[in-house]
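Q: Could you fold this chain for me?
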Amino acid sequence: LRFMPPVSPITTTNRPDVDPEFPSHPTRFISCFKKNFCPSDNIRIRYVDWTEARGPTYGRFVAGLMYQGESFYMMIDSHSRFDSHFDDYMILDVLRMKRTYDGESNAGGKGGILSYYPAGFNRFDVPVNSRADIMAMCKTVMVKELSVLRNQARWVKQPKRPLLQPYTAAGFLFGDATAQFEVPFDPYLDFVFDGEEILYTVRLYTSGYDAYLPGRSYVFHHYDRHKAPRFWSVPRTQWPRIQGITRKRVHYFLETYENQTTKLVVDRNEAHKLGIDIAEEKYGLGKLRNLDTFYKLALVNRETWDVDQETYCNGMEHEGMKMMGRYPMLN
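A: Sure. Below is the predicted structure, expressed as structure tokens.
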């Protein structure tokens, strides 16, 4: 099973000038793509000055530009380590996930994406190994001061096979590379953190892709970097203003209601006025499933902002959402 796709790491992000004829793709990267990289390269690296960083989603977008036809696509955070033979296990889980998916009522879906929050590690001199439990993406919570949903996880017993779950995590995504073409990362979410994961979850779902918890831990992340500099520590005053505008793009795509009402936080007129509806056809929601269906599936009350945080997590303890009925609110 040594047909794992080449790794394409990127050190940070950049927002270069944009081609007016094709505004969703920076000319700086398109123009140098074939010249700099040979198809036989196994590792591709793009270095960008950290002072030009624009947050995680733009970094993921730029990393996606290094794709060269591999069968699978993996997205992880930096500061990560891998279990032994992680590539074998990941591809086997994709095959198991496909068998599971084909045997379930897929409700107009195309396939699954493996995703979870990797377990943490603190010492680089100690080997990392798969553990008995894993963090299932089984709940979300409304961050009321921001009016956005924040995906969360719970430790559950490591399953014997991939299990259907409601949400994805930005820290680890793996699956058929077709999803990267159909649901590319949005380059117009500068400095957005809260809201990034739920928006990508919904974009995947409405495009026909479901999230699955892997059958084991393959990746581990170094979370406790307390002394490491963060972008908000840089003496630059523009990022809070930019983040406030780009977060409205999240509200617009997710059709977020103001609390206790059915009034949209950002309607179409405001989105167009602010320019946050740019490239909506490419980076907006999919066409195979609708947004209301997702909110019902996720047990989220859009008007009251009430969220059921226990049902799916409890279900993951008993072989996943299938044990409860795949679409409990729709049956």
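A (continued): DSSP finds ten helices and ten strands in the chain.
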